[in-house]
Amino acid sequence: MTALSAAALYTGINILLLFLLSIRVVGSRMRTKVSLGSGGDPDLELRIRAHGNAAEYIPASMLGLIVLALLAVPVWAIHVLGGVFTLGRVLHALGLSATVLWARQFGMVFSWLGMLGIGAFAVYAALV
């Protein structure tokens, strides 16, 4: 597996996560008949935020992974950084969607660690 194909793997997984979260929002919108906003429905609000949070974090991190792959960083680095970030996103989505506080907390920590690693490695790879 090349670094670029590893980056594609994590990008694909994260896109699928975004898709699943968006399906949950649409299903809740259909059930509540609310087309804009949350209409005061707490379940819909939670689903909107779970999707929104993922949409806020995923794009920049996946772009970073792809840039790292294009800079020919070792494939193990893509797997470590992409794996930590993706684990964080999955845990956070589960924690926020099901209001499981520990999963949400660990999810954010892993997401931040992944982002920090991707950002730091990108700066390092650019300067070396």
Entry summary:
The protein has 128 residues and is an all-alpha fold. The protein has helices at 3-32, 42-70, 75-97, 101-127. Helix 1 runs parallel beside helix 3.
Description:
The protein is an all-alpha fold and 128 residues long. It is 85% helix and 0% strand. It has helices at 3-32, 42-70, 75-97, 101-127. α2 (42-70) runs parallel beside α4 (101-127) and α3 runs antiparallel to α4. The radius of gyration is 16 Å and the shape is elongated. It starts with a helix and ends with a helix.
List the helices and strands and how they pair.
Layout: H1 3-32, H2 42-70, H3 75-97, H4 101-127
Helix pairs in contact: 1-2, 1-3, 2-3, 2-4, 3-4
Radius of gyration: 16 Å
Helix tally? Answer: 4
Helix proportion range: over 70%
Cα separation of the termini: 24 Å
| Uncertain runs | none
| SSE sequence, one letter per element | HHHH
In percent terms, what proportion of residues is strand? under 5%
| Number of beta-strand segments | 0
Largest beta sheet, briefly? none
- Average pLDDT: 93
- Please tell me what the overall shape is: elongated
